[in-house]
Amino acid sequence: MPEKFDVIVVGAGPAGTSCAYTCAKNGLKVLQIERGEYPGSKNVMGGVLYRKQMEEIIPEFWKEAPLERPVIEQRFWMMDKESTVSFGYKGLEWGKEPYNNFTVLRAPFDQWFAAKGVEQGVLLINETVANECIVENGKVVGVRTDRPDGDVYADVVVLADGVNSLLGKQLGFHKEFRPDEVALTVMEVINLSKEKINDRFNLEDNQGCTIEIFGDSTKGNLGTAFIYTNKESINIGVGTTLSSMIKAKLKPYDLLDYLKNHSMVKPLLSGGESAEYLAHLIPEGGYHSVPKVAGNGVIVVGDAAQLVNAIHREGSNMAMASGKMAAEAIIRAKEKNDFSEASLNSYREALYNSFIMKDLEKYKDAAHTFEHHPQYFKEYIPMVNQAMSKFFTVDGTPKREKQKQIMRSVTGTKGTFKVIQDVYRAWKAVK
Amino acid sequence: MHIVVCVKQVPDTKIIKINPKTNTLDRRSAPAILNPYDAHAVQEAVRMKRLIKNVYISVLSMGPPQANAIIKKSLEIGADEGYLISDRAFAGADTLATSYALSKALEKIASIRPIDMILCGKHAIDGDTGQVGPGIARRLDIPPVTNVIEVTELSEKDQTVVVKRKLSGGYQLLRIQMPCLLTVEKEINEIEYSPLPNMLKAARYEPVVWTVNDLQDVDRTQLGLKGSPTIVGKMFTPPKHEGGKRLEGSADEQVKDLITCLLEEKKELFYVK
Amino acid sequence: MSKEYRGVWVFIEQNEGEIEGVSLELLGAGRTLADKLGVSLAGVLLGKNVLALCKQVISYGADEVYVIDHPVLEDYRTESYMKGVILLAEKYRPEIFLYGATPNGKDLASAVATDLSTGLTADTTMLDVDLEKRLLEASRPAFGGNIMATILCKKHRPQMATVRPKVMKALEPDSEKQGVIIEENIELHEEDMRTKVLKIVKDVSKSASLADAHIIVCGGKGLGDQQNFTLIYELAEVIGASVGGTRDVVEAGWLPHELQIGQTGETVTPKVYFAVGVSGAIQHVVGMKNSDIIIAINKDASAPIFDVATYGIVGDALVILPKLIQQFKEILTEKGGEISYAGKI
Ligand SMILES: Cc1cc2nc3c(=O)[nH]c(=O)nc-3n(C[C@H](O)[C@H](O)[C@H](O)COP(=O)(O)OP(=O)(O)OC[C@H]3O[C@@H](n4cnc5c(N)ncnc54)[C@H](O)[C@@H]3O)c2cc1C
Ligand SMILES: Cc1cc2nc3c(=O)[nH]c(=O)nc-3n(C[C@H](O)[C@H](O)[C@H](O)COP(=O)(O)OP(=O)(O)OC[C@H]3O[C@@H](n4cnc5c(N)ncnc54)[C@H](O)[C@@H]3O)c2cc1C
Ligand SMILES: Nc1ncnc2c1ncn2[C@@H]1O[C@H](COP(=O)(O)O)[C@@H](O)[C@H]1O
Q1: Do A123 and B203 touch (CB under 8 A)?
Q2: CATH classification of the domain holding C215
């Protein structure tokens, strides 16, 4: 007789583990199924972990979690071929408790987090793939794994199976992605000594820095690149939507190579040794592509529910928050012993009332806007670079005259009206 | 029938790479694994259990508390029970001291449930000595058979087992009186994909952990570093050969050069007729 | 101490009246050790009707042969052989005792070491002695880098080691050499034996092919994938070579493990050895460095394999191999013949 649990969680990423942890802590009998050799073994993330949502699950987690560095500086680069305009913020208050956010490597972090769940009583099994949900009378009652005698049952199945969410697709909750709804990101972990990182990024041992790069990092296509500092390595990655990659005939690895050899980037990496190479999709469809998130006996969380804020590169925090909300809904459902869609929809309500859906709604048109108006990446970033170059080059031209020249060069190619329109559109998309 | 499999936790050499340039061990996030030969030994016990039913499988490991993980792995494959002996007193053991500690633990297991057969891997991939198995057999005074590639017969009634033992060019077919100890080669079986109920059982399982004090009649001078006659004297990089000739030029020129060298400089060894 | 431990011993492994090559190699290595220490070298020979082999043992360098001839010793079994060897070692007390690292040698040495409570170094590839302390220095590749470790056994005697076949050199046999034969009796009864040999099956097809090959093409992880690995087979086919691989290749499943060359695999000594996409880790090198000609093809100019190579090509194997195959083919058609190797025409 196959076993029955209160909850089966498919996936041991941040979403799945937050949900499993919270359920187990509240006395539910939880089975968590992960296909990797161990949690985190296959997981990819640029590496910024936000403090707030993690803290709500495990208070003062930074005292024991395997973190890399607290981020004390965030930089933004608008990069052209041989120049970059940068701005950012560095604040030492971020280097002290309770911190703002941290860089992490997913393999150790996910393992640690999942182990915390196990401490709460979660039964975790690795190297096992959930192939499909078992559906009886229109209700999800368990999952079928790829193992012999592999059926297992539960009142609720939580799909935390990441961006591809095959299980969600099988249930008809969402369709195959359109190429403009997902970004393909490739990244590399590059080993570099602590001393070099500290010198090059102007940091102390326990301080980290993030750089988000727009413009020539993607050869002007819609997308971004990033450089994050770990203790003794650097994460560097670049991604664009699948659609622009197809349109521009880009190969993701070539793009990463291009970035690594870019004159603005190369000196930061020099002498480093490549340790790992990873590729992964990020759901970037935003608000409009969030699928159905609750059904009879089933709940969808994290990337599987497309909960990613592409503009701010927030994902793991939304994953955790959604996992926790799902757990709370399941606990409520358990009290009533009602696991119908109507009952589990309390999760949907919580989700739509939270920062997650509010943020996603705010940016709902952003990617779309930029995708259809490539001038932002292709033209304005080089333009800004030229403008800055002119402005800061000391050549005897009076400053007022310089500003005039700059304005003329900006509007000259396009006409004033077009520029104003573009600026308005961009502002609306991200405001 | 009670089979005990000795299992060792080893670093995964597929992942840990020795960097040949710096001569260092690259340990990045390398997980420790169940010694692959030992996994085959557990699998073989499971196969025997399927064959004659009524078989109880225990595994025994000596190592740090983390060796827990490989005991769970053994349960996934199909073991019923797991014992871990873990104590500072065991640390630094060479093969002689290891076989001593394991034999003491085996005596204790046998007092709980008499043992009919002990299985070991042919060797552990971290040191590959292959000395621990025969050492245990000697200490328990039971017959050992190393390099087993097939168990062809198993008779509970006669208390005998027939095995093929791999030799340099061929094999021996042997009949052994139980209790006995076998060490197995990889070709003895294929590791099966474990059924889900085993996975669930393993995830829940907590092995029996013993310290030195839990074992009986232990002579502590025979344990760990103290009980190990061998020590590592020195480490050195092997004397560098001067290396031969580097062939220069384009790929075509290098290939041509090589063939000329072989046919002319080395014609006493290599020629075309 | 009742009697000091003196003398260097070598276990002479025989199968159906034929002495294993490694035992003769060990007599060569043992001779050097014994001469340095100023003691005699002895062979230890067990079996049924093996007295006739003593002469050969002496001609390969032994001063003495300890023999136990008994019907129960007809085939190797740990139980019976161990009894004989322990009896001799306890009675005559050698200071150094070497065994071939064959299945039987390793098995026997492990059991004997346990009974004598002494140290045993496995799979040694270098032997020396520290004269002052009369310590055997048995070295083997160490896990922990491209590095060798010397294992010592300071307080216990005899000092024992198993030694890889084909890494030591046998002496030229000297049929004039004189030696002493010491016969020892032992009480053994077949009915007491808990292990019975039902039959012995010879299957030389598999493992012998590499060990006896005159030319070997060995592929490493550098070939990238199993598909590319077929180039290795192609080259081997053209020049009539046997194929081998590194442990990484075997673990990746591109080759069966009996074709692994190195510390944990076969030791080979062909006339010509091609190492293609092989980095040259110490565990691999100990298994092939005694080949007559070593040709390395590797795209990393600083790969350690070049240190042992007679000829080195720094380049992409996927480019070089097809050209090499092509060139060999052309030469063969041109000369209309076949490639020959010394010793095998
Ligand atoms: C390059 C890159 C950079 C990013 N940078 C950041 C960042 O800096 N900060 C941030 O907050 N977010 C970032 N994100 C987003 C973030 O990684 C994700 O939003 C987050 O990991 C989502 O968590 P999850 O638990 O929903 O999914 P995942 O982390 O993808 O976890 C899903 C888990 O389910 C398992 N699984 C899948 N299918 C099955 C199955 N059928 N059976 C069993 N197990 C299964 C997988 O193995 C995996 O462990 C980035 C993403 C990428 C790709
Ligand atoms: C206890 C123990 C025992 C071991 N026993 C053995 C043993 O018996 N035998 C054994 O072989 N190993 C053994 N090893 C493993 C050994 O340490 C090495 O890891 C292994 O030999 C490396 O195999 P490799 O050279 O194929 O692969 P790698 O070390 O990955 O080397 C690949 C090489 O190919 C080159 N290359 C890459 N691409 C190309 C190309 N296109 N063209 C040309 N060259 C290219 C690279 O520069 C590199 O030098 C053992 C290890 C341990 C710890
Ligand atoms: N620490 C240990 N715990 C349990 N079994 C061991 C241990 N060390 C060695 N063994 C067993 O002995 C076999 C040979 O190991 P080794 O002699 O170290 O090559 C292994 O395959 C195991 O079955």
Answers
A1: yes
A2: 3.40.50.1220
**Quick one: C66 and C136 in the same domain?**
yes
B vs C: CB pairs below 8 A: 274
Indicate which residue's Cα is closest to atom 38 of ligand 1: A161
Q: How many domains does chain B have?
A: 2
Do C180 and C228 fall within a single domain? no
Do C185 and C230 sit in the same domain of this protein? no
Task: List residues of chain B with CB under 8 Å from any CB of chain A.
Answer: 28-29, 31, 193-197, 199-200, 202-204
Model confidence pLDDT, tens digit, residues A398-423: 778 877 877 777 666 666 666 666 66
Of C151, C202, C314, the CB nearest to B169: C202
Statement: residue B43 has pLDDT above 80: yes
- Cβ atoms of A319 and A302 closer than 8 Å: yes
Q: What is the domain range of residue B247?
A: 238-273
b/e per residue, C33-43, with b = 16+ CB within 10 A?
Answer: bbeebebbbbb
Domain of C180, in residue numbers: 2-192
Q: Taking CB atoms and an 8 Å cutoff, what residues of chain C touch B229?
A: 117-119, 153-156
At residue C80's C-alpha, the angle toward residues C74 and C86, to 5°, is: 125
Segment B16-41 shows an average pLDDT of 70
Q: Yes or no: say if C93 and C157 are a contact pair by the CB < 8 Å rule.
A: yes
The answer to whether residues B193 and B268 belong to one domain is no
In a domain, C301, yes or no: yes
Q: How far is the CA of A308 from the centre of ligand 1 (A)?
A: 10
Q: Which CATH number fits domain A4-67+104-174+291-353: 3.30.360.10, 3.40.50.2300, 3.40.228.10, 3.50.50.60?
A: 3.50.50.60
Mean pLDDT score across all residues of chain C: 91
CB-based contact B196 A128, cutoff 8 Å = yes
Indicate if C175 and C248 belong to the same structural domain.
no
Judge whether C104 is closer than 8 Å to chain B, CB to CB.
yes
Q: Are A5 and A153 in contact (CB under 8 A)?
A: yes
Tell whether C159 and C214 lie within a shared domain: no
Q: Is the CB of B159 under 6 A from ligand 2?
A: no
Q: Is A38 touching B (CB cutoff 8 A)?
A: yes
Interface predicted TM-score (ipTM) of this complex, two decimals = 0.83
Q: Count of residues for chain A?
A: 431
CA of C245 to the centre of ligand 2 (A): 9
Kindly report the pTM of this predicted structure: 0.86
Ligand 3 center to residue B131 CA distance, Å?
8
Let me know whether B267 and B182 are in one domain: no
| pLDDT surpasses 90 at C188 | yes
**Distance of CA C157 from the midpoint of ligand 3 (Å):** 24
Secondary structure, 3-state, chain B: CEEEEECCEEECCCCCEEECCCCEEECCCCCEEECHHHHHHHHHHHHHHHHHCCCEEEEEEECCHHHHHHHHHHHHHCCCEEEEECCHHHCCCCHHHHHHHHHHHHHHHHHHCCCCEEEEECCCCCCCCCCHHHHHHHHHCCCEEEEEEEEEEEECCCCEEEEEEEECCEEEEEEEECCEEEEECHHHCCCCCCCHHHHHHHHHCCCEEECHHHCCCCCHHHCCCCCCCEEEEEEECCCCCCCCEEECCCHHHHHHHHHHHHHHCCCCCEEEC
Cross-chain residue pair A150–B31, CB shorter than 8 Å: no
Give Cβ neighbours of residue C242 (< 8 Å, ≥ 6 apart). Answer: C209, C210, C213, C215, C216, C217, C236, C270
- Does ligand 1 have an atom closer than 6 angstroms to the CB of A133? no
* Contacting subunits of B (3+ beta carbon pairs below 8 A): A, C
Single-letter code of the amino acid located at A47: G
> Could you give the CA distance from residue A12 to residue C134 in angstroms, rounded to a whole number?
59
Interface of A with B in 353-392 (CB under 8 A): none
Could you tell me the two tokens for C220?
């490493």
